[in-house]
Write a structure and sequence with these properties.
The chain has nine helices and eleven strands. By secondary structure, it is of the alpha+beta class. The strands form two sheets. Strands 1, 2, 3, 4, 5, 6 and 7 form a seven-stranded mixed beta sheet that branches.
């Protein structure tokens, strides 16, 4: 569960960057430019990274934390801040502190969520008032999942993941398990044996039993650890990989059951209990600025 956002003159602390689950992920085709056409249901979780922001008057954008394996020029949060500054012409800068909890290469949207939180927080702190639609356009330049986090609600998504229909889903509790490996999205999508012709479904037909993750068989073949986690978690509840992997999730009946299952997770895997999140915590801040 996220702590309350702390606002101060020229700054915001403890800004959530929630994880997401892909409740299903179908590859329904491929565009001429090579991008895959998808259908998926995104679900926000009340667990993820947090970021702190402090406005700078000198225009510099600086990351104050070291993220092993992620150079500053590759950090989506930093790229988001610099792109927002470039597009808006804003002369202010920011110190950005990233408190990383989500495993990288886990299919939970960590980098994309960090970027979305950065766009929304700096839109507010810099007084830009660009609004969600424009921020989603900027986010799409950074990654296909970024617009969803700015959208800020559970959603049925199509295209390359940028076209949304809001979903109203019952609240739910999940166990999320990381096998401790990082899966490269490009590696999965470039596989010859990836299913690319799943028939499209309608939102009203969406059920767990009538859907799947088309990327899961490829990830399991390339990374047997993913298959092992799925098999272990499936002993407790129906389990599925999220995104392009490597993390696996299962819906459970209660937080207590989620804690019990997570506590049984064998090392070196890691497991968490997380609940659904009705709305992105920064959504209200952006809407207030638009108003």
């Amino acid at each position: 569960m996220f702590a309350a956002i702390q606002a101060s003159p020229g700054g915001l602390r403890a800004c959530p960057a929630p994880a997401k689950l892909n409740l299903f992920l179908h590859v329904v085709g491929r565009r001429a430019d090579g991008y895959h056409l998808l259908q998926t249901a995104f679900r926000l979780l009340d667990w993820g990274d947090t970021l702190d922001f402090a406005v700078r008057a000198d225009g510099r954008i600086r990351r104050t934390t070291d993220l092993p394996g992620v150079p500053e020029e590759d950090d989506l949060a930093m790229r988001a801040a610099r792109r927002l500054q470039q597009i808006s012409g804003c002369r202010l800068g920011a110190d950005i502190t990233v408190h990383k909890r989500l495993p990288m290469g886990g299919g939970l949207g960590g980098g994309s969520s960090d970027a979305a939180t950065t766009l929304m927080a700096l839109d507010h702190l810099w007084g830009l008032g660009l609004g969600h639609a424009r921020l989603q356009e900027i986010g799409l330049e950074l990654g296909a999942d970024v617009p969803f986090f700015i959208h800020g609600h559970d959603a049925f998504a199509e295209g390359v993941g940028e076209r949304f229909q809001s979903l109203v889903l019952p609240s739910a509790c999940y166990v999320v398990v990381s096998p401790g490996i990082s899966v490269a999205t490009a590696e999965i999508f470039s596989a010859q044996d990836l299913t690319r012709n799943t028939p499209p479904i309608r939102v009203r037909d969406l059920t767990f039993d009538r859907s799947r993750n088309d990327l899961q068989p490829v990830a399991c073949r390339l990374h047997p650890e993913v298959a092992e986690v799925i098999a272990w978690l499936a002993h407790h509840a129906p389990a599925r990989m999220t995104g392009s992997g490597a993390c696996v999730f299962a819906e459970v009946d209660s937080p207590d059951e989620g804690e019990r299952i997570a506590a049984q997770c064998p090392p070196p895997w890691r497991a968490w209990r997380a609940s659904s999140l009705e709305r992105h915590p920064l959504h209200a801040i952006c809407m207030a600025r638009q108003a």
